């Protein structure tokens, strides 16, 4: 559907009269909403009206041209455009990883639009998340007997760098883990998981490739590297923070800020899950989210 001049791929499931829940996928870019829906479409849509979309320029949404804008502001306003399109006065929002960053910015910028907020392993401060990833990367390099790269990771933690510089260098260095990089994201890595997911998705290769333009444009937005932690005291909706027990993105500093600064916030740690509890512990994830949205706690 056309939202703010761009074609967005949107999936809607669940009873029409159920509480609406917007899902914002991570990345930036990533697998769009495809991976999440494969795990959670049937589970969550039993009790909520689940709306999920590929962010502008991602996967099945319209490809971005060189002239197209793709900033944090665009992603936030795309959410509001979708809410207006579907005619909801308020809805709840679930943001995973980078999607948690967008969801928090959206709830802050449009407080009357968001009923409840679920932050699933969110990155609310890219500098803190990069530091956390570097620390975990150092451990993985040590397991591989690569003391040189472990030392590089720890040096980047201590270095006087901007958030964007540290994040970019973290991504570059962590890629040196190759197939062992999955250990940063999964409690129990599944060899070849992403390749198999792509092959079985039935989505054309060109769609997967188009996401790179989204990543390039959104990571050029300096707002992405400004911490959202100072905005937390202004949030006026209930917040559920969901973390996998071995998550590598939401460090204790970020989690502590949510629990301290957001009135009515709560945290649930999902055991035997890493950064993607919606996939690794799909039943448990759906249970905690549904209970929060339906006031069953």
Automatic annotation (TrEMBL):
Keywords: Hydrolase
Keyword flag Iron: no
GO molecular function: aminopeptidase activity
Pfam families, sorted: Abhydrolase_1
GO process terms (BP): proteolysis
GO cellular component, one term: membrane
Domain AB hydrolase-1: start-end pairs: 19-278
Gene3D superfamilies: alpha/beta hydrolase
SUPFAM superfamilies the record matches: alpha/beta-Hydrolases
Similarity comment: Belongs to the peptidase S33 family.
Protein name listed in UniProt: AB hydrolase-1 domain-containing protein
Organism for this UniProt entry: Tumebacillus flagellatus
